[in-house]
Amino acid sequence: MALYEHVFLARQDISAQQVDALVEQYKGVLEANGGKVGRVENWGLKSLTYRINKNRKAHYALMDIDAPAAAVHEMERQMRINEDILRYMTIAVEKHEEGPSAMMQKRDRDDRPRGDRPGFGDRDRGPRPDRGPREDRGPREGGFERRPREDRA
């Protein structure tokens, strides 16, 4: 059997319990066709980069799958029919990752206090040490130098 990582996006107006029910439904489809589901991660409700079917947000879910190709095709066929699924993507992998996925690790990093993150509070430190005032640096290279127009009176 082949190894896959499968991510799907569900509509924003369904509940987290309904997302879990969708995961269980597709897990059952895979197991009925001779496959197994390993790790399942619910990444929660996240903003989309662009609107999909009038949705600005979506529930993200990840499944690690060990199943024959026919089982994955059947699951994807059922996802195409389901109105609650906005998008899905299945990728064949050599082996499954150990531990939490990159999305879950990112969430842990964002739990730090805001002052500890780089880029926050730079305005409190005064001028940046690597750059002086604009007058000291001269004109930009490759650009144009702004000069007063001679035709103005």
Automatic annotation (TrEMBL):
Residues 94-153 are annotated as: Disordered. Keywords: Ribonucleoprotein, Ribosomal protein, RNA-binding, rRNA-binding. Transmembrane segments: none annotated. GO terms for cellular component: ribosome. It holds the Pfam family Ribosomal_S6. CDD domains: bS6 (cd00473). NCBIfam families: S6 (TIGR00166). Binds together with bS18 to 16S ribosomal RNA. Belongs to the bacterial ribosomal protein bS6 family. PANTHER family: MITOCHONDRIAL 28S RIBOSOMAL PROTEIN S6 (PTHR21011), SMALL RIBOSOMAL SUBUNIT PROTEIN BS6M (PTHR21011:SF1). This is Small ribosomal subunit protein bS6. The gene is rpsF.
